[in-house]
Amino acid sequence: MMKKRIAILGSTGSIGTQTIDVLDAVGAEVAALTGNRNVKRMEEQVRKLRPKLAVLSDEAAAKELRIALADTSVEVCAGEEGLRRAATMESAELVVTAVVGMVGLVPTLEAIAAGKDIALANKETLVCAGELVMQAAQEKGVKILPVDSEHSAVFQCAQARGENPLAKIILTASGGPFFGKTRAELASVTLEQALRHPNWSMGAKITIDSATMFNKGLELIEAMWLYGLPPEAIDIVIHRESIVHSLIEFADGAVLAQLGLPDMRLPIQYALTYPERVPCKVPHLSLAEIGKLTFFTPDEEAFPALRIARNAAGERGNACAILNGANEAAVDLFLHDKIGFLEIPELVERALADVPRCGGLTLAQVLEADAMARETVYSAR
């Protein structure tokens, strides 16, 4: 396998650190790393991987990192400008977009414009601007390689389809920590309970999205753009064991699934080595040890996020950017104990009702819709 040169946006986060964990198997060379404000972790990563560029989200943290790395030749930058530089570095062939939130959109578009393949772990990029991103990727001839376990599963299954179109995608959801609870019971859940995911270890925002099931609604929108299917051809099924990561269905009713233990290192590694496969650190699946696999229909009364996201997906235009911006703001309020759990979908629906729609979509319109949605949510509290 040829050695790939990569840039990792969000290297200090959950997906970023797991990406670094598989680099030895991949044999990749790292050109750039970006992170939040975690100076210590970034210094450790830089000393291990020796990138040309290291970026932190604010100047104070970057200044501290520069001092810590004064004995190296690594350039240190800060903020959005540094993020864009990392995304477009000439020496990188592939960009892993593992940052969380809308901050990942512009760097991803600029990486595509620079001809870089994308290992996509930032779902907001496609949720908010899927039409723009997929069109740009097609024009530049770059690959969008999904890192999320569900979309990686669909991608892996789709390798067997040949010229046959997909009739349906079935995305699996763990159901999060509140599976089986009624709407009345959800009214009193706490932040600590919402952050207690049964199967996956993820960042706080994504863990809350899993608890509300907005995570699966966002993934439905992603799948719509990645695979060119309407939202009504994408089903969601609750699968508590998180062993079947997603499925595809053909016109004749045949269904293919990708299975594996709930460990993000496998989909991350496949995005980096595609189309080749190499040994992975993840333990291999034993179905006999698992014993049984269960599946359930989502409760959209208790968890309205799926209905809200599906409706926004059907609208196209800026509706999904409004949905995403409002959800990010509402989750931020919940993480700071300023709203209750059930207020998250309520505030998202309020933003969708209040923010004006537009048909055709430009980057400026996406960013405007995002800003207006956030303002609507924050002003409500």
Task: Report on this structure.
This protein has 381 residues and is α/β, with parallel strands linked by helices. It contains 18 helices and eleven strands. A seven-stranded parallel sheet has the order 4-3-2-1-5-6-7, sandwiched between helices. A four-stranded mixed sheet has the order 9-8-10-11, with helices on one face. Strand 2, helix 3 and strand 3 form a beta-alpha-beta unit. The mean pLDDT is 95.
Summarize the structure.
With 381 residues, the chain is α/β, with parallel strands linked by helices.
Q: How are the SSEs ordered, and which strands pair?
A:
Elements: E1 5-9, H1 14-21, H2 23-26, E2 29-35, H3 39-49, E3 53-56, H4 59-68, E4 75-78, H5 79-87, E5 94-97, H6 105-113, E6 117-120, H7 123-140, E7 144-146, H8 149-158, E8 168-173, H9 183-186, H10 191-194, H11 204-212, H12 214-227, E9 234-238, E10 244-249, E11 255-259, H13 265-273, H14 287-290, H15 305-315, H16 319-335, H17 343-354, H18 363-379
Parallel strand pairs: 1-2, 1-5, 2-3, 3-4, 5-6, 6-7, 8-9
Antiparallel strand pairs: 8-10, 10-11
Helix pairs in contact: 3-4, 5-6, 6-7, 7-12, 7-16, 11-16, 12-15, 16-17, 16-18, 17-18
Question: Could you name the key traits of this structure?
Answer:
18 helices; 7-stranded parallel β-sheet; globular; alpha/beta; 381 residues; 4-stranded mixed β-sheet
Question: Main beta sheet: strand number and arrangement?
Answer: 7 strands, parallel
Helical residues, percent: 40-55%
Uncertain spans: none
Distance between the termini: 53 Å
Shape summary? globular
Structural class: alpha/beta
Strand order of the largest sheet: 4-3-2-1-5-6-7
Q: For the CA atoms, what is the radius of gyration?
A: 20 Å
- Which sequence of SSEs, written as H and E, runs from N to C? EHHEHEHEHEHEHEHEHHHHEEEHHHHHH
Number of strands: 11
DSSP summary: helix tally: 18
- Output mean pLDDT: 95
**What percent of residues are in strands?**
5-15%
